[in-house]
Amino acid sequence: MFSSRPAGLASLQKRRASARQFQESPAGTRDEASFQQSAARTSCSVRQHLAFTLASAALLMLLYSLLRLALLIYNREQIGAASAATLAEAFFNGSRFDLRLVVYICAPLVLAVLSRRAMRARTPLRVWLISSASLTLFLGMLELDFYREFHQRLNDLVFQYLKEDPRTVLSMLWHGFPVFRYLLAWFLATLALGWMFKRLDLLTRSPAGTGRGEGGRWPIRVLAFSLCLAFTVLVARGTLRQGPPLKWGDAFTTDSMFANRLGLNGTLSLADALRNRLSDRRDNLWKAEMADGEALRTVRQMLLTGADRLVDGDRAPVRRDYRPSPGGTLPVRNVVVILMESFAGHYVGALGAPSGITPNFDRLAGEGLLFTRFFSNGTHTHQGMFATMACFPNLPGFEYLMETPEGGHRFSGLPQLLGARGYDSLYVYNGDFAWDNQSGFFGSQGMKNFIGRNDFVDPVFSDPTWGVSDQDMFDRAAQELERRSEDGKPFYALLQTLSNHTPYALPEHLPMAPVSGFGELDQRLTAMRYSDWALGRFFDRVRHAPYFEDTLFVVVGDHGFGSREQLTELDLLRFNVPLLLIGPGVREKFGARRDIVGTQVDVVPTIMGRLGGEVRHQCWGRDLLAQPAGSPGFGVIKPSGGDRSVALVSGDRVLVQPPGRAAKVYRYRLGSDPASLPLAEVPDEALLKRQLGAFLQAATASLLDDTAGADDGGTER
Predict the structure, then answer these.
(1) Are 236 and 244 in contact, with CB atoms under 8 Å apart?
(2) pLDDT tens digits along 431-463
(3) Nearest 5°: CA angle at 651, between 368 and 668?
C-alpha cells in the first residue's frame, strides 16, 4: 500500500523517458515503432478480422479496376465504334474475373477465421496482401504494352520469351520500352499499397482486453468460416448457373473485340497459361470430334485435285504424287523466298493502303503476280518459318513446333523437295539462328548453309538487340546468290528480314522519310518503310545479275500486326500479309492479281508447280495457280500465345471457332476500309465446321505419328 506511490512515480518516469526517446527518434522509426506498439496493445475479434478482409478485398478491387481503366486509356485507339455502354459492360464482366482473383488472394485471411492466433497475426497477412497486390500490379503494368503489341491479354507468350535468350529479351525490353519509369512507378505504387494495408490493419483493431473471448468462441469462428467459405466459393465460380464456373468466353458478350478482351483479367489468363505449360502439353491438342475415316476423306477432298494421285493412303493422310500441267510451269531453275518481318498487308499500298508505306513493294507488285487474300498461318515469325518452308500448319498445342521433339521430324518442305533434286541451299538472316531453334530445325530439314548475325563484317548498322540491319542482310544475300550462281548448281534461298521488330532500331540517318500521323504506330511503320526500302534496293541490284532471269522470287510476310480495326475475335488483320511472285513469264501466264484465299502452307506446292516435273509431297496446302477457275480457296489459321482459337478462311468469309464457345461465321473485307460482319444465315456452316475440324484432326494425328514427310524416308520420290 505504502509502496504504490513510488511505483506509480517510477512508471510515470518510465513513460516520460519513453516519450522523450520516441520524440528524438527519426520519423520513419517513430511511425514503425508506433505501429508495432499499437499492434501489441490491440486484439482482433471475428467481426474486426472480417472487416479487415472485406476492406482489403475492396482495395484490391479498386486496384484492378484502375488497371483496367489504364489499359483502356493506354490502348484507346482500339476503342473504335464501341459505345460507352459497351465499355461499361466490359468493366462489369471484368469485375467478375477480378473478384475471382481477389478471392484467391484473400483465401489465407478467410482460413485465418478458424484461429485466434492467425487472426492476430496481421503482419504475415499484410506481407501476403502487399506482395500479391504488388505482383498483380506489375503484371498489369506489363500488360499495357503487351496488349498494344499483341492485342491479347497476358498469355503463354510471356513464358516463351522468358525461355529464350535472356540477354536478347532484356535488351529488347530495355531499348523498346521506358523500363526505368515503369519500375519507378511500380516501386512507388507498392509503397502506397503497403501504407494503405497498414492503415486498414490499424482501423480494424481494438484495444486488448476490451471484451471477453476477444477472438470469438470456436462455434462462432466455425460458423463465420462456413459462411465465408460458401460466399468465396460462389464468388470464385463467378456465376450462379449450373455446370462450369466463369470461363474465358463469358467476357465475350459484345460486338467489340477490344471491349471483350478488356473484360478479362490478365493475371488469371497468365495463370491459366502457366497451368497449361506445367501440365501435360497434350491437353492443348485439338480434340478429335469425328471418326478418323471421315476426317481423312474430308481433308483429302479439301487438298487433292485432279493432278494429284494419293499414295500410301493407309499410312499418311495426304501424301500424293503431283504432276503440274506443262502450261503452268515457268522457265526457272532457282528459288529465292524472302520472308518479310511484320509486313502487314493492311499497310501495303498494292493491297489498298493509301499511306505510301511500301512504295518499293508496290513497284515490284507491278512486275509480278500479287495475291490479295493471303494470310499467315500464325502470328509469330517462327510459325511463318515452318509454315512457309516446311508447308506444315500451325496447330493447337504445337505453336512452338520448331522447339518441340516433333519439330525434329522430316517435313515435306522446300529443303527436302529441292534437296532431293540436287539444289544448293542458303539461309541469310540478320539475327542469331539459336533464337527459336532456327538452325536446329532447318538443319534437320536439310538446309546446309547459314549466314547469321555473327557472319557480318563491318555492317552499316547493328541493332544491339537483334542483329544487323535489313540493308546489310540484303547486301550480303546479293553477294552470296551471285557466288552460288557461278557454281552452276541450281539453288534455293531463304532471306529473312528483322529490322521491323521491337525495338525498331534503325540507322541514325534514314535513307527514306519517317512515317508520321499514325500515333503509336509511327515508329513501327517507319521500320516497315525502311524494310521496304531495303527490299527495293536489293531488287535494283540483283535484277542485273545473270541468274535473275532464271529465278523465281517469292516475297511474303511472316505475319501482320494489330491495327485499330479488329476483324472478328481472331483479329484477322494480324494474319493478312502479301504474297508476291516475281519471275520470267509469271505475269504473262497468270496475270497481275489473284483473289483466291491462300496461306503460307500453299507456298511450297505453288513453287513446285512452277518448277515442273512430278513431285511426291505431303504439303498441307495446294498449288494456288492450279485451282479451278472461281475457286474461293481456303486457309486454316491460328494465333500464337496458347490461344486455342482457330479459324477457316474461305473466299470472303471466315469461320471462327473460339475454345468452349459456338463458332461464328463472318463476311470480311480487307484493303483500305477493312470490316467484318457476322452472318445470321450460313447454309454451309456445318460443312465449314467439318472441314476445319478434319484439317486440324488429321494434321495433328500425322504429326504425332511422324508421317508428315514426302515419304517414309523423308525424301522426294
Answers:
(1) no
(2) 998 888 898 999 999 999 999 999 999 999 998
(3) 100
